[in-house]
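G., the chain you wanted modeled:
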Amino acid sequence: MDLTLTLVACALFLVLAIVCGWRGARPINILKGPRLIPWRPLMMICVVALMLMLVHLANLLGFQTGNPPRY
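Predicted structure as C-alpha cells:
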C-alpha cells in the first residue's frame, strides 16, 4: 500500500471507530428491542485495524518497527 491509501485507511478506521463508539454508548431503548449490531466489538476491530495502519504508516515513513535482520 502506498502512503495515500494508508492515510485514507487510517482516516476511515478512525471515523468508523468514533461512530461505533458513539453508537455503542447510547442508552438502550426498551421499546425498540435489542440491538442487532454489536457496536462495541466493531469499535474494537476498527481500533485494532487503525493501530495496524499506524504501524504500516511508520514503516512507510522509514521507521523500523520489526526485529532487526540477523544477517
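Residues 1-27+53-63 form one domain.

Shout if anything looks off.
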